[in-house]
Fold this protein.
Amino acid sequence: MSQQLVEDLKTLIGQEGEPREALDEVCKPMIRHWCAAMQDGNPLYTNEEYAKTSRYGNIIAPPTMMLTYTMPPLWPPKEDPPHHFEQFLEKLDKAGYLGILVTNVSQKYYKPLFVGDRITFTYKVTDMSPEKKTSLGAGYFVTTSFIFTNQKGETVGTQSFTVLKYSIG
Amino acid sequence: MAWKSVYWEDIEEGQELPTVSMDITCTTIVAGAIASSDFTPVHHDSNFAKSIGMQDIFMNNATICGLSGRYLTDWTGPEGELKEISFRIGTSCFAGDTMTMTGKVVKKHTEADQHLVDVAYEFNVPGGRNCGGTGTLALPTR
């Protein structure tokens, strides 16, 4: 990869875009689908009767579901200008690093996700490794940090994740 | 129905979590991807996955994350509260794999009024370690 592109990518690190709102509010159908896929029988998530008597007093989403609220829609195509992270990935695609694989995920949970909550998130690229040789091909590890807030402005959680953008051999 | 609880006083550092096995099918992988709104073709389109050199479709990170939470709170019961999770993904998990989930309590501590345990856990598949991580949970006290 050219030095120019590396410098170009570095200018995107640390830049935070506008907050984005999750497409859906936290809702029982999405929670139920998630729990079915994960085979998670925790009654806090799907058992109304139990949830009412729990310390939360209502159904909550599994905390790990947080990252679902950052996902773009399958359709229609997004009209928002691409975020710095998306620009970052596009530039790496153009440079021939087409493969992408998530390698590390960290999440911290501060407040439960209640049914009806509207999640907003901000995120930024925080780090890029030098080019590394991996078993999949040469590539870069790119780390992104997220902050999730609810409609009351409370921070519900944070997440960092690292992807490997690699050249498919 | 009564739900079991693991109490902080009853935990010892070094204690192992029960081992859980899960048979992973194409349906498990696709259901996890779609439940997490992840439509990346490598998690549902076998031909596409093979075209980029993967053996087949493989489990997405959100499913590994969801299974991590499930493994930990299945152990504590619903009164256990997941505070934090951090994991590294290694070998991919494919349909036909049996995933073996294991874990161990590495630290017991308190912070403000919370009674916490740190757990190290792993998900292994026939190809190797799919996921290795740590989780912190707040537990109820007696």
